[in-house]
């Protein structure tokens, strides 16, 4: 298929500055499963959120509110990378809540704290159902002979406790659910730059694409195919299901978000193109090792 480069993607002067992340997370990793997992971008009605691609179906269910937006993405990525880095089911959340929010690149004003606490609570109240296509399963994904299970992230979602003076004390750690811990540890992590990821919080779709794009190129690099052509209706089902946007409007939104991400992946400019008819996003196999590029970027800040 003849292709042309997406001009809006390759503007070299579009590199976004950090939004205040004070700690640079070196050797950060993201679970391959969650490179395919997108939470809603906005508040949704109902108790179940589902996304699908050719290999996996992921459902988020909650008796309260489905987590959405940038905050649960930040929290999930932080918990995931800490599990992979430390190999421990207890995740440190800093000495104070303000310190923890700074590590995530967030402010500590009352509005931010209120929104973050609510979305974190929604995340821990939720369960994730993972269904893997048997044709694409691997030894790493096989769990007790089944490919369907529900996973809680944490059994406890209390960040504070009352001390003897009836004052709130920041607990400073999170006890991860054993099933979630085992699931994350069952596969190798994908390197990513948490500092750059946290700079994209103004667009939760851009955050998703920052993780998804190198993962998709990495998978392509392991295959015999030179390229893959992705239809925008299918991309919409993966990244913005149940959206009221037309395919045309979703495509515009998607490419705008991609234009925020590509300056962080300059090595892959030539591997992300739009088909001549404008109906497909075409990814081609990078010449450079994706894993090597990600590791170098991981350690660059």
Account of the protein in words:
The chain is an alpha+beta fold. It contains 9 helices and 14 strands. A hairpin with a 5-residue loop joins β8 and β9 (168-170). Residues 1-26 and 136-148 have low confidence and may be disordered.
List the helices and strands and how they pair.
Elements: E1 3-5, E2 29-30, E3 48-52, E4 56-61, H1 70-86, E5 90-92, H2 97-103, H3 110-125, E6 127-132, E7 148-152, E8 160-162, E9 168-170, E10 173-175, H4 178-185, E11 190-191, H5 194-198, H6 204-221, E12 227-231, H7 232-239, H8 247-261, E13 272-275, E14 280-284, H9 290-298
Antiparallel strand pairs: 1-13, 2-11, 3-4, 4-6, 5-10, 6-7, 8-9, 12-14, 13-14
List keywords for this structure.
301 residues; alpha+beta; 4-stranded antiparallel beta sheet; 9 helices
């Amino acid at each position: 298929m003849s292709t042309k480069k997406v001009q809006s993607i390759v503007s070299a002067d579009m590199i976004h500055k950090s939004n205040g992340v004070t700690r640079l997370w070196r050797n950060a990793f993201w679970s391959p499963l969650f490179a395919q997992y997108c939470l809603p971008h906005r508040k949704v009605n109902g108790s179940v959120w589902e996304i699908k691609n050719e290999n996996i179906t992921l459902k988020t269910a909650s008796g309260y509110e489905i987590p959405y937006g940038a905050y649960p993405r930040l929290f999930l990525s932080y918990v995931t990378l800490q599990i992979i880095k430390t190999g421990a089911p207890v995740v440190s959340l800093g000495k104070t809540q303000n310190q923890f929010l700074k590590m995530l690149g967030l402010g500590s004003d009352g509005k931010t704290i209120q929104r973050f606490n609510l979305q974190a609570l929604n995340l821990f109240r939720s369960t994730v159902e993972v269904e893997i296509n048997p044709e694409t399963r691997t030894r790493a994904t096989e769990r007790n002979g089944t490919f369907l299970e529900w996973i809680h992230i944490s059994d406890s979602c209390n960040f504070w406790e009352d001390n003897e003076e009836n004052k709130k004390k920041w607990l400073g750690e999170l006890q991860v659910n054993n099933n979630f811990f085992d699931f994350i540890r069952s596969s190798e992590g994908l390197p990513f730059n948490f500092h750059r990821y946290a700079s994209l919080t103004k667009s939760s779709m851009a955050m998703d694409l920052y993780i998804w794009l190198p993962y998709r190129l990495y998978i392509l690099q392991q295959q015999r195919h030179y390229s893959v052509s992705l239809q925008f209706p299918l991309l919409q089902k993966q990244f913005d299901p149940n959206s009221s946007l037309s395919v045309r409007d979703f495509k515009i939104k998607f490419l705008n978000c991609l234009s925020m991400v590509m300056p962080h992946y300059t090595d892959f400019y030539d591997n992300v193109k739009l088909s001549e008819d404008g109906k497909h996003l075409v990814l081609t196999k990078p010449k450079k090792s994706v894993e090597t590029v990600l590791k170098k970027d991981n350690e660059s800040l």
